[in-house]
Amino acid sequence: MTLDPDISTPLWRQLVDVLVARIEDGTYRKGGRLPSEVSLQQEFGVARGTVRHALQHLVAEGIAETTNGKGTYVRP
């Protein structure tokens, strides 16, 4: 799936939607690690800030949790 910079939905929000869909379909398992910021940047062609904003939103919504130095994980 690709992100569309030409629609009104911000890229970070589109990325959140993609990540949530992947969690729901089992691509990213509960308790499992999400891809790194760099991996997500490369896959979707977005800036680091966009990825960070998306991951911070997932954490704020209780969908994921971040462990410093370890990464971001899907909450069980």
TrEMBL record:
Keywords: DNA-binding, Transcription, Transcription regulation
Gene3D superfamilies: Winged helix-like DNA-binding domain superfamily/Winged helix DNA-binding domain (1.10.10.10)
Tagged with keyword DNA-binding: yes
CDD domains: WHTH_GntR (cd07377)
An annotated Gene Ontology molecular function: DNA binding
Cross-referenced Pfam families: GntR (PF00392)
Protein known as: HTH gntR-type domain-containing protein
Protein's organism: Actinocatenispora sera
Organism placement in taxonomy: Bacteria, Bacillati, Actinomycetota, Actinomycetes, Micromonosporales
